Every structure is written in structure tokens, then in C-alpha cells.
Amino acid sequence: MSTEVIPGKTPSSLPSSNGENVSIRVEPADLATIKQDGPATPPANTGGNTLHLSPKTEKFISPRRKRSITLPSDVRILVVDDDALTLRIAQRLLTKLGYDKIVTVDSGKKALEVLKNSPEKFHLVLSDIHMPEMDGFQLIHEIKKMADDIAIFMMSGTENLDIVYKCLKSGADHYILKPIKEDQLKNLWQTLYRKRQEIRTLSQLDSEKDKTSKLEEKTQKLEREVIKLKQEIDEAVETPLRIISSQVENLLSKADLPAEVTLSAILKQLRKVDIYQPAFKKLLSDTTDIEPMTRSWLTHELGTPDTQTETTPDFSIDWSNNNNLEGKSASQELYLRSWEFDVWAYKEEQLFPFILDMFNDFGLLERFNVPKDKFQTFLVEVRNNYSKKNPYHNFRHAFDVTHTIYLLLTTTSAAGYLSYLEIFALLVAALVHDLGHPGLNNNFQIATCSALALRYNDRSVLENHHCSMGFTILKKPECDIFVGLTDEQRREARNISIVCILATDLAHHMEITGQWNSTIPKFTKDDKSHRLLLLQVLLKAADISNPGKPFGIAKYWANMVQEEFFGQGDVEKEKGLPVSPFMDREKPALPKMQINFIDYLVAPLFGAMRDLLPKLQTLVCDRLEENRKMWKSILESDSPESPSPL
Ligand SMILES: [Zn+2]
Fold first, then answer.
1. What share of the chain is helix, strand, coil (3-state, %, to 5)?
2. Both 260 and 178 in a single domain?
3. 489 and 349 in a common domain
4. Residue 571 belongs to what domain range?
């Protein structure tokens, strides 16, 4: 409803009370500021006044507000009263004020008919309250049902405030006391303007409400999307353990699902080696709209061995029937590949050529472009970083472990499951796996809060130390035997070496053998994680393989271990610490220690490996049994439990 006069329209000339024309230019914004007693209507008695907008106001009128105009002469007014005199007075006064579209009727019913049937909209209804048939209140009610934007003025001869209040409460916009006087109609403009404002505000409120509800709807939709996304992420980072628990839930809830089916699915998950590893692979494969940078970040930050890139495996062959040891006599070759090889028969430096032979047997130095001088320097550096004071954890042990891996690779089918790069990394890991060993074990490091324990936070303290030292040596340019590798191969070799060396911490023995046992039924060399597990187990097995060697050699190693243990026991006594089991030289128990070692660690591990590498039965397992009997007989014969080295 537009009742204002908008600038831009030729001012309408209205007759003033004294007959002069009054020029009106009114802007709604200005109207709002005009006081109730201000000259909002054409001044009736002060002829000649012109209401102008200030140029400033005009300047700020937005084009949007220059809407269709309604001059006083355009305002359509319906006057309703059963009293003919009132109708005449109203008509006369309104006309005098410039309103010329006036319709008068003498009943509420007629008023409604006019309102319904009029092709043009009425802006104002001026109605009597007390009328027969339909009184003013009923009329208001009916008009409100018809249209909400018609201003309604009620007229009555009473000043009774209850009536006035009832009028306003019924929806009337104004109350006029009869008989109508010109002054009472002066403020028609303001009333109409207020009405217009009120309607505009209401419609704005409605639209705001609408917007708010739309916003709420949008927010709810977004919230639902977030919840869905969270679920998707949860599913994506699901670990096999979570999959298992949901399968168990399924099993419990669905009686119709055969238990064997679910149980076998559960077992399949349980056999996974990455049982705790969130399945980011799923996240990356399921979500196609991950931008490349995010995908790359996820892979790098949350990458698992599975998601890390891998060089194309160049698989080795079954080395039990092949060799590269050209120039070596058959007996030399046979000896190097023999489980009878006596590591104690040589001085340390005499062992170097054997190492070269082992690497050459697989053609590793040639295949990976290892400069011979760097290889030599690397070996010297490695040897120098093993303590000569340690009876057991010295360079000879490192050689022995490397050689035992070589035996495992060349006398069983193990090498056939691995790539050349993996074999290379494994042999290097074996050479460095105990570097810098102080002769005092992890428990001692942790108990004494040693510098190493502090550095590695009590976690695989020595293994971390050995590994770190190994790669510190490899970083020296003159020792860099990985120089011929591509960056990717170098990363892979480093990862393999680290994983394998850390696996030699016996604190993880049960965990790794458990993984192995669950992997073997489905072992495949095509699965990188399976091969990595095999590499770990090979180094672990070689590390504790002494009791599986010919008894003479095994017994010598046993004595060396015991001697190193006694050394730690001595230090523990000095420091007032409780002496560790088998480390008190006052209470030697070598046969018992060896039997325990075989029963709880060595035999179970080789037994588990035998499932994949059957030749281990005759090569190691049988010997373990024999040696165990030897130790048992020594124990039973009550011979001195601290045998002298052979
Ligand atoms: Zn070791």
C-alpha cells in the first residue's frame, strides 16, 4: 500500500482551506519524522505553505523507493455510517482536504459488497461503530479477513475509553469522535503512513522469518552432511579390529547369518598384519574428490607401509641351486653355505672376504652399483663400531647373524620370496643390527635411566641406538653403499633395515611371532607387508640362532652370552640394583638358561618358520632338539654349570 507522495512526480495541486493551491512533495522517510502535530497534511488554515524535501533528502532517495505514487486525491476512502448526516459531513471534510475518491454507504453489509466488488483498492475505511445488522466491530472483523492492508478508522459519539480500547484491539487504526471535525482528519496522512509502515514491517518480519527458517533448514542440512561425513571418515579409518567388532555385532544380531561365514570373515581380519592400521587406502579409494595435494598429504602424513610407494620388486630366485661365486672352489662355496661353518675358526678381519662373497653370491654389489672401496670402508667402519670388550655383542656376532641370514636365504626357499633390494637391505641390517652395543641390555638401560634410555624414551632403546648408528655410518660418503640406489630404493632399503632391526627387540617377540603365525596360511610374496614380515622374522631368527648351530659352536656362543650377562650382573651389584636372572656369576645356570632359551624362543620361532620354509626342519629344528638333549644331559649329570669355553 502506497500512500506517500514521492518526489519526481509533478506535485499535485490541492485546494487549501483558503482556496489557494498547496504544493506537496512528501517523502516517506520525512513523513516518519514529522511530528503528530506537524504539517503532514496540507495545512488547512495556513494557506500558501509548501512542504519541500531538502535537497539532501532528495539526494539520498534510492531509485528503489521511487515507487508508484498515491496522492491524496488518489486515496480511495469508504465511509460507512447509518447516519446520513455523518456521511455528508465526512464527505465534505474529506473533499476539502483533497480527497476526492470517496464512497459512502449506510451499512456494514453494503460496505463489504463495495470492498469486494470494487475493481480498485480502497485504502481507508471510515466506519461508525453502532449500526444495525452489522456493527463496526463485525465490519472490522470481516474486512480483516478480506484484506489486511486497509486502514480502518472507527467513529463514535462516545468518549468511553473501553469502546476506544475495544476498537483498537479489534484492529482499528484510529478512533474519531463524532461529530467529525476537520482537525480530526488532518492526521490522516500520518495514520495512513503508519499503517503502511506497519504492513511493510510485518511483511519484512515475515520475510525475515522465512529467511530464518530457510537458514535453519540449510544449517540442519549442513549438520546432517557433517554427520554423514563423520560417519564416512569413521568408516574409512576403520581398523580391522573395528571391522571385527562390527562383524561380531552382526553375528549376534542376525540369527539367519551362518556363524561359520561371519567367523571365517573375522578370522581373516584377525590374520591381517596391519590389524591396528587405519584403512586409509579405503578413504583414498572411496573418496574420489580429494584434491591431489590433500591426497598426497594424507599419503605422506598417514602413510602406512601399504600406502608407501614401492619400487617394482625384482624377485630373487631359489638360491639353494644357484650361486654367483665364480672363482671359488666348490668346497669353499659349499663351506660358506654350510650350517657347519665355524665362525670361531677365523680372526675378525678374516671374516671380511666372506661378507663380500655373500653379497656377491646374490650379485648385489653389481646390481646396485656398490663401489667396492665404499663397501670395504663401510665394513671397516662397522667393525670399528662394535665393542671389542663385549664377549658376545661384538663384530663376530654381527657377522654370524649376517651369515645365518645368508644360510637361511641360500639353503631354504626364503630368497625366492624376496626381491634383490630386500635381500640387500636385510644383509646390511644384519651387519649393523647391534652396532654400539654397550654389553648392558635394555632393562639395564631403563633401570639406570641411561643416556640412551633418555634419548629413546625407554622404547627399544638399544635397537634404536644400533639402527641410528648404522645409518650414521651409511651417511658418510665414503661408506655410502646405497649410493647407487634411486631415492625411492634408498627410502625402501632404509625402511626395511629400520623395521627389521627394531624387530630384534625381544620385547616384541611374541607380537611378531603372533603376526607371523596368522600370516603364514595366506602368505604371498605379492603382498609387500608379508615380505616385510618375513624379513623381520629372518633377522630375528638369525639373531637367536646360536642354539641351532653345531653343539660345539652353540656352546661357545652360550659361554660368551653368559660372560656378558655376568658382566652386567657385576655392574648391577655395584649399583645396588637387583641382579637380573642368569646374570649372577655366583649362581651360574647355563644349561638351564639354554634349555629355556630353546624352549621358549628359538624352537617356537623356527617351528613357525618351518611352515613356510620346510627345509628348516632338518637344517635347524632337528639340531635344536639334539642340542637341547645335550644341555639337558649336562644339567642332569650335574656337571659344573660354568663350562670353560671350548
Ligand atoms: Zn644381535
1. 60, 5, 35
2. no
3. yes
4. 544-646
**Distances, alpha carbon 73 to alpha carbons 14, 76, 101, 102, 301, in Å:** 8, 8, 7, 10, 78
H/E run at residue 403: helix 395-411
In a domain? residue 366: yes
pLDDT > 70 in the chain, percent: 73
DSSP H helices in 520-639: 528-543, 551-574, 590-597, 603-610, 616, 622-636
Per the domain annotation, does 498 fall within a domain? yes
CB atoms within 10 A of CB 558: 23
Of 481, 505, 529, the residue at which a domain comes to its end is: 505
Each residue's pLDDT tens digit, 505-538: 999 999 999 999 999 999 999 999 999 999 999 9
One domain for residues 354 and 498? yes
CA of 463 to the centre of ligand 1 (A): 9
Whose CA is closest to 538, among 415, 438, 454, 624? 415
Q: Which amino acid is at 418?
A: L
Q: Is 393 a catalytic residue?
A: yes
Are 137 and 274 in a shared domain? no
Q: Which three cell numbers stand for residue 617?
A: 626342519
What is d(CA 581, CA 587) in angstroms, rounded to the nearest whole number?
10
Give me the CATH number covering residue 166. 3.40.50.2300
| Pair 399, 482 in one domain | yes
CATH of the domain at 387: 1.10.1300.10
Instruction: Say if 380 falls within a structural domain.
Output: yes
pLDDT digits (tens, 9 = 90+) for 555-565: 999 999 999 99
End-to-end CA distance of the chain: 116
Does 244 share its domain with 339? no
Average pLDDT, integer, range 596-601: 95
- Catalytic residue of the set 174, 393, 397, 465: 393
**Looking at the structure, do residues 241 and 334 belong to the same domain, yes or no?**
no
pLDDT band at 401 (very low <50, low <70, confident <90, very high): very high
CA of 131 from ligand 1 middle (Å) equals 114
256/414: higher pLDDT: 414
In whole angstroms, what is the distance from residue 201 CA to residue 194 CA? 10
Are residues 557 and 423 located together in one domain of the fold? no
Which residues line ion ligand 1, judged by CB < 5 Å?
434, 543
CA of 509 to the centre of ligand 1 (A): 13
Tell how far the Cα of 434 is from the centroid of ligand 1, in angstroms. Answer: 5
**CA 230 to CA 234: how far, in whole Å?**
6
With 0-12 / 13-18 / 19 or more C-beta atoms within 10 angstroms meaning exposed / middle / buried, residue 166 is middle
Burial of 135 (0-12, 13-18, 19+ CB in 10 A): middle
Residue at 220 is within a domain: no
Number of structural domains the chain divides into: 4
Q: Of 598, 499, 508, which Cα lies nearest the Cα of 545?
A: 598
How remote is the CA of residue 320 from the centroid of ligand 1, in Å?
25
Q: Is the pLDDT of residue 395 over 50?
A: yes
Question: How is residue 104 annotated by DSSP?
Answer: E
pLDDT-derived band at 355, boundaries 50, 70, 90: very high
Taking each helix axis as running N to C, give the angle between helix 528-543 and helix 487-503, from 0 to 180 degrees, rounded to the nearest 10. Answer: 50
Average pLDDT over residues 188-193: 71
